[in-house]
Amino acid sequence: MTGSQLSNHDLQVKSLEYRRDILRCIYGAGAGHTGGSLSCVDILNVLYNRVLNVGPANWDDPNRDRYVQSKGHSVEALYVVLADQGFFPAEQLSTLCHGGSPFVGHPTRKVPGIEMNTGALGHGLPISVGMALAAKLDHAPYRVFTLLGDGELAEGSNWEGAMCAAHYELENLTAIIDCNTLQITGRTREVCSNEPLDEKFAAFGWKVIEVDGHSIEALSQALISRASGQPTCVIAHTIKGRGISFMEHVVSWHHGVPSEAEYGQALEELEAQLCELKGVAT
Amino acid sequence: MSAPAPSVYSSDAQRQIARLGLEKGRANLEVFAETVQALAEQDRDVLAVTSDSRGSGKLKPFGQALPRQIVEVGIAEQNLVGVAAGLASTGKKVFAVSPGCFLTARSLEQIKNDVCYSDVPVNVVGISAGVSYGALGSTHHSLHDFAALRAITNITILAPGDNRETQAAVRWAASHAKPVYLRFGKAAMYDLGESSVPADPRQAMVLRDGTDVALIGTGEATIHCLLAAALLEEEGVEARVLSVPCVKPLDIDAIMGAARVCRAVVVAEEHSIHGGLGEACATVLLTAGVTPAFRIVAIPDEDTYTGSQAEIFSHYGISMEGIVAEARDALAAQGATL
Ligand SMILES: Cc1ncc(C[n+]2csc(CCOP(=O)(O)OP(=O)(O)O)c2C)c(N)n1
Ligand SMILES: [Mg+2]
How far apart are CA B163 and CA A42, in angstroms? Predict the structure, then answer.
């Protein structure tokens, strides 16, 4: 929730802890979307800890900011961040994907803190356009954010939504692209190229900002800013599998689940990064 | 790692599998991919069209062996079906492959207009259908596909129950000059019997003779009918088992034949209770004035329980035990009215 006094360093520490918790969830469940959760978690970190005016305390407030995760498969990142925000106890995540658990493998509104059920790609942007349009109609102050995958952009509904958002001059809407250059089959450039993304969104009438999607500072600036009279597209350049050496840029980690040995190594790597980060700070 | 996922087959069901001597095969999806590749190797006009789905469709070997015959459109299922229709209109033999949940929902209008209405022979292949992606939630379940497609004219709906039915269905579809929907799950399937299956998958198969209750199944539910019949036999109940890989057009003679000799009918399917094989059978029987005790074992109209396919099946009784319970109940109801 906004107004927190967390420093960039604090958020960097959180990112590492979130990565550890994501892997714990996925390892425990024996299922999950590893690569894309690790690529977007810094974005979620900045959104929930610095940008969004939303939390358990104001969840019923019609003026809360809205976040819709269009790339719903990276739900583990969202669950971990929502738990940290206090929407539910983190221990509940041990039921991920279990029979009857509300912690389904894609976001559902059964879980506190989740705005919309997603998982079929190409839905989040039109939904967010609707939410942002409602705010405009009512002169309500809230902002709407949605997170899209780069592969997801092949769905035509995104471009229908993009056109509509610019038409209605939705300056309260920000679409973030988790631009990790990979999808399931391989490189997005080779599966169905969507480049140049910046020019495409600009041509559709959006303000475009490109950032390092793992830089807390750069993400903060981009996500806090808003254009006037047009929606904002933040192209976040990220690394799929970010933070774990053997997962980075490796397409099979899209929904790869670590073995016991891999899990151990991943935790060690995160621990080392944490030590380094804390060492730098002291 | 967590404990291995629970099995669709209880230990009692496994005992019946052993008693019947059923052979464990592979996922129908794998047999589909292998068969379509064999066809494509013989005929360069056979194409697979995918939407970032070649991995889940088990088509990576196809892509490696025949790169010219696989068309990738990215994560764009509407585009997938439109492109497939265009390719097929020029004489290509097209298999458009994507998860059943997206393919028959997102691209339904393309299936309706570009394929069925324009009458181009696309094979629309719904992979990981039903609740194969159980724990991924309702976005990833296709429990509506039979219903949606049954209401669209000019498409044959096939849901093979084992590897042999799969192979026959794929071969038949490739040579059929009309739209076809093929539905596959991703669990390894047991062979439903030893005899060869008909080359025309529109024909239902009597897997077991019996005159007390007819157990009618399609897709991955059929095996549970067969196991239920084996268990009922131990109780002295003779069940007839019908494998119906073709949900539309229905093999009316086979359905009527079963219902005429039996006092009760139970239909099992991995689909919503609405609009699937069960309702199709009910309509046929009622229209003909044949009224056995009738039950549908399927997913009820509610916020679907999520978990693995096995957990969902056992939750809703799409299992040997669930089908036996419905059969007993139906027979008891019939007995009461006799
Ligand atoms: C409509 C739809 N089609 C297909 C899928 C299956 N699917 C899940 S994730 C994914 C790849 C997504 O790639 P991208 O958008 O780049 O996400 P990321 O790399 O961040 O994981 C696909 C094809 C889906 N969930 N929804
Ligand atoms: Mg990507």
Answer: 45
